[in-house]
Amino acid sequence: MNRQNLIKTALGKKEPDLVLKNATVIQVLTGELLTGDIAVCDGYIAGVGRYDGPHTVDLQGRYVSPGFINAHCHVESSMALPELYCQEELRFGVTAVVTDPHEIANVAGNEGIQFMLDRSENLPLHYFVQIPSCVPATPLEHAGSVLKARDLACFTQHPRVTGLGEMMDFYGVSQCDPDILEKLSLYRHKVLDGHLPSVPQELLQPYAAAGIQTDHESVSFEEAREKLRAGLYVLIREGSGSKNLDAIMEGVLREGLDTSRLAFCTDDKHLLDIHREGTIRCHIRRAIELGMPPVTAYQLATIQAARIYGLRDIGAIAPGYRADLVILEDLKQVSVSDVYVGGVPYRDLSLRPPMPPVPERILHSVHLGGISPDCFALPEQDCYPVIHMVPRQILTRKGILTQDEVSQGLTEGSLLKIAVLERHHATGRMGLGLLAQYGLRHGAIATTVAHDSHNLLVAGDSDEDMLLAVQELERVQGGYTLVQNGRVMATLPLPIGGLMSDLDVEPLTEKIQELTRCAYSMGVNPGIDPFIALSFLALPVIPEIRITDMGVVEV
Amino acid sequence: MNRQNLIKTALGKKEPDLVLKNATVIQVLTGELLTGDIAVCDGYIAGVGRYDGPHTVDLQGRYVSPGFINAHCHVESSMALPELYCQEELRFGVTAVVTDPHEIANVAGNEGIQFMLDRSENLPLHYFVQIPSCVPATPLEHAGSVLKARDLACFTQHPRVTGLGEMMDFYGVSQCDPDILEKLSLYRHKVLDGHLPSVPQELLQPYAAAGIQTDHESVSFEEAREKLRAGLYVLIREGSGSKNLDAIMEGVLREGLDTSRLAFCTDDKHLLDIHREGTIRCHIRRAIELGMPPVTAYQLATIQAARIYGLRDIGAIAPGYRADLVILEDLKQVSVSDVYVGGVPYRDLSLRPPMPPVPERILHSVHLGGISPDCFALPEQDCYPVIHMVPRQILTRKGILTQDEVSQGLTEGSLLKIAVLERHHATGRMGLGLLAQYGLRHGAIATTVAHDSHNLLVAGDSDEDMLLAVQELERVQGGYTLVQNGRVMATLPLPIGGLMSDLDVEPLTEKIQELTRCAYSMGVNPGIDPFIALSFLALPVIPEIRITDMGVVEV
Prior knowledge:
- The structure is a homodimer.
- The first copy, chain A, is of the alpha/beta class.
- Chain A is built from 18 helices and 26 strands.
- In chain A, strands 1, 2, 3, 4, 5, 14, 15 and 16 form an eight-stranded mixed β-sheet that branches. An eight-stranded mixed β-sheet of chain A has the order 18-17-20-19-22-21-23-24, sandwiched between helices. A five-stranded parallel β-sheet of chain A has the order 6-7-8-9-10.
- At the A-B interface, helix 1, strand 3, helix 6, helix 7 and helix 8 of A face helix 1, strand 3, helix 6, helix 7 and helix 8 of B.
C-alpha cells in the first residue's frame, strides 16, 4: 500500500481508482447501516463519504459488506486444490480463509504443509495458515508423517502463518507433554487453535491455561458458553457433516450472551456443497433467521474473525482496510451479487495464477503392503465390538455382538466388515472391525480420505469386493471407489495426497454426485452421507468408537 | 509464567498459590456475572471454578473485576513521578496504564522518554508507553527538544512500548510530511494514537487512511460516532480539565451504538484528583449511572482497552490472564475494597522499588535568557488580540480590543498580560499577549507546565510581580508560583523537568490545595481551574487562540 496515495485520495486530492457510489455500508465497527460512496486506492479503502472519479459503479443503495472470513477450514476436505476452493469461496463472498492443512500434513508432513503454502501463494483470496499441531492426531494410528515441535519451527516466520492449528491432544496438554508445550510455545505470540469436543468445564480450564485460544467443536449453547467463560473464542461451525449454528445461536439469543467473541467457520465442507450454497453466507442468513440483528451477524462473519486471528487490515469498511467488498441484493438473504478483492471484481482477477507443480511424494502417496482376500477374515473370538453409525452426526456408538450374531448380521446385511489399511509406508498394518447402520449391500466402498491419518478405509459385505476396492484405489493413487459383485461401479480419483482431485469444478462436482447416487443405490442408509460419515470413522479423537490401522479403539 | 505449573494448578494437581473463594466474577468475556473460586498460580489465573489451597481468601460473594486499564494518560500531568502516580492508580483499581510521556519529551527529548521508561521499569503496575510523535507539537513554538523519526527508531523494540503517541499534526499528516509518515511507518505494527479535536468528518478519512487508530478528543456523541465510523477507536476522557463521558455516553445509550470499540482514559488528571477519587472507576460508575449495563461498563474499563493496545494477557478473568483483580463492595458504586496485582495484594508489593536517579538535564531544565520588567511592555499598535478563557473548557475564544480598551481593561482588572518565555535553551525568545476571564488581581501567576512545549508561562496585572514570579520559578527550577504586591505568596516546586514534584503524595496534595486556595483568594474566576486551564493556554493544537514563545497564534 502507498500511504501517500491513500491519504491524498481520502482528502480528495487524488482521483480514486474506483468509487462505489451510493452504497449502503454495513458498518460492522459501529453496528450501523450507513449510506455513502466508497473510494478505493491501490486496493485499499481510502474513505467512505462523498467521492467521485473516472471509474465509478453506482450501487443504487445496495448493501456492501466487508468480505466474509471463514475462520477455520480444512481445504483438503473439499477434495479440491486451493485454487478451486478459493474460487468457490469467492463466488459467495468469502475473501479470506484461515486454513489448517492438517489432512495433507498427515499424508506428507512438512512437504504437504509447504505444498499448500506454495499453492496458495498467489491466490486472489487471503489465505492464512494455522500450522498443524497434531500429526498424527493420536498415538493410536500411523499417519504418513510424524511432526514434532522441531519440525514446526520452520513455519513461524511465514507471513501468512497466523498460528498453530487445532490442538487435539487434550491428554498431552493436561500431562504437560514437553513436545506439545514446545509447539504451543513456538507459536505463543500467534493464535493457538483448540479442538475440544464434549469436554467438561473443569477440563476446559487447563486447556485455556495452556494458552489455547479458540475452539470450533461446540455442538450446544451450554458447551459454547462454558468455552467462552473459560476464555476461548468460539468458532461456530456449519460444515458438510457438522451443523452447530442453530443449537448455539438459539441459546445465545435467548440468553442475550455477549456475541463479541464468536465467529463463523466450516471446518470440513465439500466442494459440492460450497459450489451450491457457499459457506459463511449460510451462517449469516441462518443467524438472521433465528433472530440475530443483521449487522451483528455480519460482525461475526467479518471483523470478529479478523480480530481473533490478528488480521488488522481486513474485516471492515473504513480507511486503511483492504477493499474486499461483498455487494448484496438482500441483507437478510445474503444474496451475493458481486465480490471485490482489493478493489477489483473477483472475476477480473487471475483465479488460476501459475501454480507450482505437485511434488512427486504427494502425487504418489498410496503405498500398501501385500494384501489378499483372507486379510478380511475375522479372528475367532467370543464377542466383537461393533461401530454403530449415528445418522446426521459424526459421533458413533459402541455395540457388542456374539460370534453368532455377527455371522447372522453379515449374512442378513445389517453388518459390514470395515478395515483400515496403513497406506503411507507399505507396512501392511491393518485394523479390522464391524460396522452397523451404514447400509451397503453386495459390495464394498473404499476411500483414502480417512481422518486424520488418511489411511485406506474399506467397508463391505464381500471380502472379494473389499479387495477389489483396495486395488482400485491403489491403481488411481487414492480417492473414493464403489465396487459391487466383482465390478468397479464408480471411482473418484483423488491423486493429490489421496485427498484432492485434479479435476476442475464442474467435472469434480458431477463425479461426486455420480458417486453419491451410486452409493445410495447400493443401499447406504439415507440418513448418512456415504463419504463424509465414512471418512470420520477412523478419527480417534471423536467419541465413542473408531477404527484405525491399529484396530478398533474406544475414545 | 510457568505453563506447566499453571496447567497443573488448573487441573487440580497442584495447589494454587492463592484461592479467592466465593467470588462474583465480572466475566467481561461473556458479559455475565458468575460465581466461583479464582485459583492463582505464579501471578496468573489458573482457573475459575471449584478450587482450594492453603492460602484462601473468602470473598463472601463480593464482586471481582479484572484490573482497570487507563487507556491514555500523561503521567507528568499529575505532577507526580511514575511511582507515586502508579500507587494512586492502584489504590483505585487501575493495574495497567498506557502512557504517553510527551510532556517530558518536550523538555528533555529522548532522555526524558528514557527516564520515564527507566523510572517505570520495576513498578507493580503494568506501565505501557506510547512514544511521543509530536515534539514539539507544532512549528509555532520552541520546545526543549525536536524529535524526528530517526530519533524515535530506538524505542520500537522496547517490550513495554505499545506504539506511537498521539499524532497531533493533522496538517503534516494530510500533507504527507515525509518525517511524519516515517514515524507512522516505524510503529505501523503497533498502535498509532491520534488526536483530533473538532475535526470534520471529511478530514477524518485521511487521518484514518494514514493508519491512525485511536482518538481521545471527542467532546460530543456525534463527534465520537463519526470517529468510530471512520475506523478509530474512541477513548472516552474524564480528566481534571476535560470531562467528555456524559456527552458521549448519553448518545451511545440513546442510539444503541455498538460499544465494542470504546475504552476509558484520563489524558491529563492531577494527582490531587486521582488521590481523591481515582480514575477509571469514575468512568465506570458514571456510565452505569447514565444507564449502561454494569458489565458493559466494566468491559470498556478492562478487556476493550487491552484489545486496543494488543495486551493479550490482561483485561479478563480466565485461565492464562494475569491475576490483576479488583475486589468491589458494590458493583455500581465501584467501591474498591482490595486490589491484587499478579495475585498479590498491592499493599504487599514494593510500591517504591529502587529507582534510577533523575538525570542532571532533567533536574535543571529552566534556562532563561536575560529578562527585565520592560520585557512586559506592550508594543504600540491600533488593536490587540485577546485570549478569552471559557469556564470549564480548555477551548478559548478570540477577542479584539483597541489600545484604549486594553489600557482600561488592565487598569480595571478585566484584562491581564500573559507572556510565554522560552525556558529550555535560554534564547530569550518571548511571546506577549492579553488574557481575559482569568480573574487574578494585583499580582501574577507563573508556571513551567505549559502544554506542550512547557515554556515558562506568566500572567498578571503587574510587570514587577510578573518578573518576580519568573525569577521565583528560575530559582526553584520550575513549578507553579503566585506573587502578589511584590511578595511570593506560594510556590509549588516541580524540579523534575519543571513538570513533576519530588514530594510524596500527602505533602504534594496539600501543597496543591494551598496554591489553589491562594489563587482563588487572589481573584481567579471560580469557573476556571487556576492551574490546568492556564497550562493549556500555550497549546497551539487546540482552538481558537493561544500564545507561545513566538507570540499569539490563531489555531
